[in-house]
Amino acid sequence: MNEPLLKVRPATISSTEFFARARTRLDFEVPPGLVDPHIIPRTGDSGNDRMLEIVAQEQPVRPAAVLIPVVDHPEPTVLLTQRSPNLSSHAGQISFPGGKIDATDASPLDAALREACEEVGLKREFIDPVGYLDLYGTAFGFRILPTVAKVKPGFTLEINEAEVVDAFEVPLAFLMNPENHQIHVKEFRGIDRHYYAMPFAERYIWGATAGILRVLYERIYLS
């Protein structure tokens, strides 16, 4: 199954409108489900929701934060990374800058900014945080809180090869076009659950990264 869930025409809002909608619709209120295993981040997919319920009963909650860096070019892009093949989880996958929230982090936002600097050298002075997107749960017990941010062009990246092997930009228009949102099925303990994939050239964007991008599309373009 590789068809978009909603057969709608591609959205064509401007960069200005994108950030205006994001600032209106997002905020910095931390959802209690980030740390409470009894609050399941609902996905709208019964298989995924059941999987998250099972995971919450069997594994400790692992709070995490990622940055969705939307680079403010005339045609905006999203900065993504490719994780090192040597990592213990999600090795080699396409991801956002981010990671687990440390006890020393003042907030999920602070964790996302710290991780972006540590992984790819994206400095805070280039980042204008906009707000938190919806909480996203994974099969590994992670509760991911994404921060949407407007990033000023002109930054220089310094790749930390212990964590990521590459960083690259994908046009926001491509990622926010539902015609590029493939849906696939994977089994979890006899339960069919659906996940998104957004292949871009030689890059295979899928799993949590594609799922979070789909949530961004639904919050900003469909609401």
From TrEMBL:
Instruction: Write down the SUPFAM superfamilies for this protein, in alphabetical order.
Output: Nudix
Q: Where is the signal peptide?
A: none
Q: Recall the GO molecular function terms of this protein's record.
A: coenzyme A diphosphatase activity; metal ion binding
**UniProt cofactor(s):** Mg(2+); Mn(2+)
Looking at the record, the residues that make up the Nudix hydrolase domain are 60-192
Q: Which UniProt keywords apply?
A: Hydrolase, Magnesium, Manganese, Metal-binding
Annotated PANTHER family: MITOCHONDRIAL COENZYME A DIPHOSPHATASE NUDT8, NUDIX HYDROLASE
The protein's name:
CoA pyrophosphatase
